[in-house]
Amino acid sequence: MTATIALVDDDRNILTSVSIALQAEGFVTRIYADGEAALKALIDNPPDLAIFDIKMPRMDGLELLRRLREKSQIPVIFLTSKDDELDEALGLAMGADDYIAKPFSQRLLIARIRAILRRSEYVGTPQGTPATDAQGPLTRGALAMDPARHRVTWKGEPVTLTVTEFLILETLAQRPGIVRTRNQLMDAAYQDDIYVDDRTIDSHIKRLRRKFRQVDPEFDAIETLYGAGYRFSEE
């Protein structure tokens, strides 16, 4: 099935050039010039993946992501200015799956898109339709994960995760008590030899903890071992 990519950017040149490049690779594109114009369309008719610029008039990318995450978990890639490290960290903390700094290579952007779409197929489509039943449910103490349906519960309560968050948590939960280094978590969540720095994984871990603590304020199953990595504890 042809994947649909939504592009949200107030720079018409970027919208046009990226849209042409994606169409040449076989994607269907939808373009929006600002966050306000995009929000309702993204919720009512979700694409397979969305790409947001952060700095836009009327509604910036961070606010668009915040409001979108109230209704949808479609994968999102942020486009950021080269020096906006704070914006990158905020975007990841709010639930973005990836970010790319401007100016960027269209080849790199397409590689990131394909990697995220493959991860989406593994855990289920953004709309929730199971992509495969090859991976069975996983239960570890109070945690239950169903990769085919992209469902997670903690003590019976649902926890909504992005694709990247799901894959990181699944990697930790597959072998409770075993320390996973940041590199191992990067390999699980980001494929195709795409470079991702340490703080990206740290940001995803912080958001995972925050989401579980909204369900259970005493959640402490994801442990940090300083200088080594992270592990999942069933205790």
Protein model, in words:
With 235 residues, this protein is of the alpha/beta class. It is built from 8 helices and 11 strands. A 5-stranded parallel sheet has the order 2-1-3-4-5, with helices on both faces. β8 and β9 form a beta hairpin. The longest helix has 18 residues, at 106-123. The protein starts with a strand and ends with a strand.
Short recap of the structure:
The chain is α/β, with parallel strands linked by helices. The protein has eight helices and eleven strands. Strands 2-1-3-4-5 form a five-stranded parallel β-sheet, with helices on both faces. It has a four-stranded antiparallel β-sheet with strand order 6-7-8-9, with helices on one face.
Strand proportion, as a percent range, falls in 15-25%
- N- and C-termini, Cα separation: 42 Å
Order of helices and strands: EHEHEHEHEHEEEEHHHEE
Helical residues, percent: 40-55%
**Strand order, largest beta sheet:** 2-1-3-4-5
Outline, from the CA principal axes? elongated
Helix tally equals 8
Oligomerization category of the chains in this entry: single chain
Low-confidence region ranges = 123-134
According to DSSP, the number of beta strands is: 11
Q: Strand count, sense and closure of the main sheet?
A: 5 strands, parallel
Instruction: Output the structural class.
Output: alpha/beta
**Computed CA radius of gyration, to the nearest angstrom:** 17 Å
Give the mean pLDDT: 82
